[in-house]
Amino acid sequence: MEIQKGAELCFQQLLNNSCRKLTLNWSKTVLLYIVLFCISLITVALNLLVIISVSHFRQLHTPTNILLLSLAVSDFLVGLLLIPLEILRSTTCWVFGDVICSFYFYLTGNITCASTGIIVLISVDRYVAICDPLHYPTRMTVARVKLSVCLCWFYAIFYVTLYLKDFLKPGRYNSCYGECILVINDTAGTADLVLSFFVPITVIIVLYMRIFVVAVSQARAMRSHVTAVAKSKSELKAARTLGVLVVVFLASYCPFYCYTLVEENVISDSSAFFVVIAFYLNSFLNPMIYALFYPWFKKSVNLIITLQIFKRHSSDSNIL
Question: Which residues cross the membrane (predicted)?
């Protein structure tokens, strides 16, 4: 993605104050738009199915599924708003103004921070379920999980507002009209790297290492305690499935944060477009994981697509 000196201006009437349009290969640009907008639509559709499923069917109103519901909400917003806006921001002139530009980055920070917090909560949920199963029903109640999710979102709003307080002044860092960039000073960038990446990742890895150790010991114990086999297998399967979710999260987020270690102002660099898209692809992959590993998701989708959820008492359907 290069801007040539003779390139057409974004806003002809502004002359020297206007940014220049990106010169992109037409066929490659069209293909890129089609692929990315398809990913955006699929992300929206699949996460909407997760939201409807968990919200509608009472059997799915469990602590773990409440966390998945919250994650699906953030993933839905990524597909609906962030991916399309990122495509437009990085491949064309920004025509939506400084206020929408600030809103885009503010929303990006909120959703990313909340998603990271929810992944940590999912790890805690599995840790308690595997490592302290006797106290799981009392410690991880639906009410407590809902409160934790709300606190997670409130923290994201507070943190991002504090983190971007200087940037939230529209147009402050734009060098020309038609540009939408994010500029963060070194101190704020380092603090964000620690608080939004290293600390959560460390917590997740430590919890899952503990889960792995306990899971191995439980698998051995199953051979001599037949009565607890069904329950233990169910919990271990859930831990494995959510473990895949966490691994995909790390694989999607690590390239972005690793890039910020070697490149300043990654968000304002057009060459980092694909790193940012990979950052958002986690929202596309999450519902794919549910479809592959959760039988209840397939059953609920079938009921939703066939419109059986509009039948009386459909919320009490047995889908587990």
Answer: 30-54, 66-83, 103-124, 145-164, 193-217, 238-262, 274-297
Strand, helix or coil for residue 293:
helix
Nearest alpha-carbon partner for 151 in 114, 108, 109, 200: 114
- Torsion, Cα of 298, 304, 308, 314 (10° steps): 80
Q: CA 310 from chain center: how many Å?
A: 30
> 3-class SS at 3?
coil
Q: How far apart are the first and last CA of the chain?
A: 49
**Looking at the 3D structure of the chain, how many domains does it have?**
1
Assess if residue 223 is contained within a domain. yes
Domain contains 206: yes
Residue 50's domain comprises 25-182+199-311
Residue 154 burial class via C-beta count within 10 angstroms: exposed 0-12, middle 13-18, buried 19 and up: exposed
CA distance 260 to 255: 9
Tens-binned pLDDT, residue by residue, of the chain (320 aa): 444 444 577 776 666 777 777 666 777 778 888 888 999 999 999 999 999 999 999 999 999 999 999 999 999 999 999 999 888 887 788 888 888 888 888 999 899 899 999 989 988 998 898 888 888 899 999 999 999 999 999 999 999 988 887 766 655 666 677 778 777 777 777 888 888 888 988 898 888 888 877 777 766 666 555 544 555 555 666 667 777 877 888 888 877 777 766 655 445 455 577 778 888 888 898 888 887 788 888 899 999 999 888 888 888 888 87
Q: How many residues does the chain have?
A: 320
Give the domain CATH number at 178. 1.20.1070.10
In this structure, is residue 170 part of a structural domain? yes
What's the Cα-to-Cα distance from 208 to each of 21, 123, 134, 242, rounded to whole Å? 47, 7, 19, 10
Rg (CA), the chain: 22
Do residues 232 and 218 lie in contact, with contact meaning Cβ atoms separated by under 8 Å?
A: yes
